Amino acid sequence: MNEELKEHISECLKSGIRLDGRGLEDLRNIEIEANVIETAEGSCRIKCGMTEVIVGVKLSVGTPFGDTPDDGVLMVGAELLPLSNPDFESGPPSIESIEVARVIDRGIRESKVIDTKALCITKGEKVWMVMVDICPINTDGNLIDIGSLAAIIALKSATFPEMKDNIVDYKKKTKKPLPLKNFPVTATVVKIGSNFIVDPTEAEEKAMDSRLTVSVTADGKICAMQKGGNEPCTIGDIERMIDLATAKSEELRRHIGG
Asked: Where are the domains of the chain?
């Protein structure tokens, strides 16, 4: 990153304001639209500032893992295309796309939001597989939080396709929703110098020293955390970042209503 720009960002933060005019703890405006993909069982599009993400949920019947014969399967993937940001490249998944997918996956998985036992059709033979695909349309920072929120809303909107005689008809949807509870919400806090901010833009992410992503369930419990960035965090930093992330998760939770 341009060092002069990084220094400018840091100086602005010291005065309590960011390049886009927000305060350090202010989120950008969020616009949400559910059920935007007709061929998906559930979907959501979220626009947060200049970042826009679309998430689709597909349900299919597959074979369970050997060590969990009566549990359904969750898979989360993220594809960061050059269309959404010139820094992204075509080809195999990048480290960034793998990290986005894994952090979002961990928040969903560790929250136990999906009752995987209820996804079992025949123990050891057939279960429902839940595939969550995350695709940014335009990227200006904070993909993890926005992608996670879109994933939860897409899961909440999902309904099972019709199945008769063990044959799935993907052209017909039932009104049966996924077995969900205790929705997790993910919030990331970024440290730049001695300042802590939320909902970072791309420029702020490039200027960051460290970040902490926290996933919080509806009952206020932390179910997952992920530290990022090249600089270490003190215990005091982590405590402050957790408190701020927890507070912002409640603000974001209003968008899913649970």
From this structure: 3-253
